[in-house]
User: What shape does this take?
Amino acid sequence: MIFDHIEKGPADPVFGLVREFKLDPRKDKHFLGIGVYQDEIGKKTHFTSVFAAQKIVEEQRREANYLPIKGSSEFTDTYGSLVFTENIWEEIKERTSSVQTLGGTGAIKVGFDFLNQFISNKVCYFVPTWPNHKQIINHIAMDVTTAPYLDSEKLVNFEKILDVLSHLPEKTTVLLQASCHNPTGADFSYSQLKELSELMLKKKLIPFFDLAYQGLGVSLSDDAYPIQIFVKDGHDMLVAATCSKNFGLYSQRVGALFILTQNDKQKENVSSNLEPLIRANYSNPPSFGADLVTCVLRNSQLRNKWEQELEQRRSRLANLRSQFVGELSQKSTANFDFLLRQKGMFSYLGLTETQVQELKDKFGIYLLGNSRMNFASLNKSNFEFILDAIVKVCK
Ligand SMILES: Cc1ncc(COP(=O)(O)O)c(C=O)c1O
Assistant: This one.
C-alpha cells in the first residue's frame, strides 16, 4: 500500500519531551524544559494588559476579510518601533521591507527562503542553538558552516567564532540571537558585538538577528541593542522578531520579519519577492494577535501596564537565577557561577546526558537533553526539591 514504507519520524526535542512528560504516570513530576513563562504558582498566566486589549480589539473587530499577504502594516509599523527603538525606526522604515509572520519561526523560515532563493544558500550558525534553527535550515537544504558557541568555561567562544567567520565566503548569512540566548543564556558583550559587526561588514557577511526574548533579559531597549549596533554600522540585514514570549501570545503566532535595504526601491523589490514566497506557503497571516500587540503598544495605559508586567517577569527570572546559584554553591561542590553571567529565561546547566536522564528517571525532573533549564519553571513549592536533586546527580 502507499504508506507502508513510512517509518515513525523523530520526535521534536521540545514537543516530544512534553508528550513524554504528559504520559509519565508519576504524580510528582516537574517540567523545566519548555520555553513558556510560568508564574510563582506554576501557571502560564496571560499579561493582564494583553488580556485587556482583547476586549478593545473584539469590539473594534473589522469586517470578515483576509489580511494582505504582508499582514497588517499597522502592526509591522508599530512593532518596528519597539524592535528597533522609535528613533532608529523613523530613520529606517522607508527602506525596510516588513512583513507580519507566523511567530518567530515563520519569520526565520520566510527570511531563509528569501536568502536561499535570491542571495546565497550559505549560512553559518553557532552550536548549540535553538533546535528549530537547524531544522528550518536543513529543510531548505542550505549549505551550513557551524562554530562552537561556548568555550570550556561556558563563556561565548569569541576567538573561535571570529576565526570561523573570517573564513566564510561573501554573502554568507550569519544567524545571531540578539539576547537571552536559547539555550545557553550567554550573550555577546558590547565590545564583542562591535568587533563582530566590523568583521562582518569587511567580509560582506549578512547578519540575520533572531529576537525572541526582548524585555526578558535587561530591558526592552538593551535586549535589542545588538540590532541597534548593526543598524548604525550600516549593514544590509534581517531581523526575525516574535511576540510569543514578551506578550505571552504563543498560540496566536505573532511575529515579523524586517529586511533592511539601502533605499526605498530596494525595499519595494525585496517586498515584491517576499510576497510570492508567503502566498505559496500560508497565503497571509491571522489578524487577532497582531491587533492585540498594536493595541497594547499604541494605548499608553496598556503599554505602561504591559511594560510593568514584563519588568516583573524579568526581575523574577533574575532573582530566581541568583537564588538558585546562591543555594547551589552552598550545597554542591560543582561550580555553577557561570549561570550568573547569563540572562533570560534559560540556561544550559552543563549537566551530562546521563545526569539529565537520572534527573528524569529518579526524580521526575524533565530538562531538555542538552540540560537547558527554564528558570520560570522554578517556584516556592518545587525549588528545594529540584535543587537537591541536581546536587545529588552532580555528586
Ligand atoms: C531563539 C528562538 N527563536 C525563535 C523562536 C520562535 O518563536 P515562535 O514561538 O514565535 O515561533 C523561539 C521559540 O522558542 C526561540 O527560542
In short: The domain at 66-298 is CATH 3.40.640.10 (Aspartate Aminotransferase; domain 2). The chain has a mean pLDDT of 95. The radius of gyration is 21 Å.
